[in-house]
Write a structure and sequence with these properties.
The protein is of the alpha+beta class and about 120 residues long.
């Protein structure tokens, strides 16, 4: 006997599996504005700045007869000196104001003595 076995002709068949999902990620820049509020508070404070003013007060003392008798009151002059400069005497300091007041007082005193001698 002969072993002549024939195989039948079977055509090729294609079968599809369900698809596999593959994800690919792509990243793109997106501008996101973030607002940071800033509150500015303006505070005003008083700071003392000293302005020194000097008022000249002149007193008269009568030294006659060895006794110190003060005259009737004192004179207050309107010469105000701010800091070291006098507004009444431009360019001169406090010393000039005092000497000016003294010279005026001497003139006033000498005119009184002349009028009393007459």
């Amino acid at each position: 006997m002969s072993c002549n076995y024939h195989r039948p002709f079977c055509p090729t068949v294609t079968v599809y599996d369900p698809p596999q999902r593959i994800e690919r990620d792509f990243y793109h820049p997106q501008v996101v504005k973030v607002i940071h509020p800033i509150e500015i508070v303006n505070k005003h404070h008083c700071v003392p700045v000293y302005e020194h003013c000097y008022q000249v007060i002149e007193k008269e003392e009568d030294m006659c007869h060895g006794h110190g008798h003060k005259s009737h009151g004192h004179k207050s002059h309107d010469h105000m000196s701010h800091g070291h400069m006098s507004h009444g005497h431009k360019g001169y300091g406090y010393e000039a104001t005092i000497s000016s007041v003294r010279s005026k007082a001497k003139k006033h005193k000498s005119s009184k003595s002349r009028s009393s001698k007459r």
